[in-house]
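FAQ: What does the model actually see?

It sees only this:
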Amino acid sequence: MFPSLTARQRPDHPAALFACRRFHSVHSLARIAQQACIIVGLHKHLMSTAYNAEQHFADDLPKRQDGGMIATNSEKTKQLRSRALYTSRILKAGALIGDTKTLLSHWDVNATVDENVTRIHQDNVFGKASRSRVEDILAIFRRRYLSEKSVTAALVTLVRRRFPPAALDRLLYFHSARADRLLHDAVTEVLAPMRERGLADIGVHDFQRPLIEWVKQGKTVSSWSDTTIIRVAQELLATLRDFGLLEGAAKKRIAPSFLPVESFAYIAFYLKQHQASGAKLIELPDWKLFFLHRESVERFLFESHQHGLLEYHVAGSVTRLTFRAETLEEYANVLAQR
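And it is asked to produce this:
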């Protein structure tokens, strides 16, 4: 069959068959080893690629939009803090009722805010030893009373016309709470629910617990330490006592609700400028700052109507609310004449 080959070289000879099988076995092992190397190399490449992809995702995450993507806990906290509601600026300035009245009594309505602030700072009308302390106070006053020209003019009018101190203090509290969300929510989310449950005694721990939760939820501009939380809670208690919502020195209690009708009418006028609908005005959450519900607001409106401070008429679903002035400053003069 194979005349040119010796017996040993013939493929069908046992020795040749053994050599052939050995050759194929070695060749198969070589191929298996080669494939194993390829698999190991591919695995390393995939692992390296997966790691790099994860690292790239983590590094690139701050640049991405929220669009339903998964974020790390630290990144979620950063995103929340970028939209934080609360600051610790109350530590620099509490109620400051006396200093506020001093500021308003020295205010020149014909000058700009910057001109007034510069003059008041230079003259040190507050009588503070530290100029940095004066700067802190003025920065707080800018947010509370100087960001709206109509509010500044109205408060200056009330101070100069000797508006009743208790009634004026309620207005200063109102504008302060609207300017500081922490102060606002301390009343509407802590004090108001406590009062509704019939609780009167209040201490540092009553503010400390929600503050800890707000910090965890990323509602503060930075992560507050335990010491900062306690200090903020203490300052909230002191500020709300000075504004008349709390009473007591060492042990504090929620004070009986007090809102002069003139103060209510001023606040109603101010809110009406921001909410034209009389029906919706009654539902505004701002009334919670004085522990007022819808029925209480309506009673105040009827009382103010009886005192001639405003006109309030209700006919079915139609509500009509009007005032005897066009601007807040003009209305301040109306209230001061009483």
